[in-house]
Amino acid sequence: MQTTQEPPPEDNGFFGVLSDISLEDYIQLICGKRATKAIRVTQQDEKGLIFVQDGRVVYAAQGALLGIAALQRILSWKK
Prior knowledge:
Blueprint: E1 2-5, H1 23-32, E2 37-43, E3 46-53, E4 56-62, E5 65-66, H2 67-76
Antiparallel strand pairs: 1-2, 2-3, 3-4, 4-5
């Protein structure tokens, strides 16, 4: 699984590939810092999107799935 983060243009965040930390741990880190981030996740041909606002997951999408179903699908992907 490949996780990339694309910050908004005004954000000084980072963009990259995470391989040494699980997606679950990364989301916990963002939530613990009460950050606002958009996370794009890809695995082979599948793509997912997770939005965290002020430390809370507020939106997820994967294919035709939205919300909790999308988040569960994304988190089920293997590394």
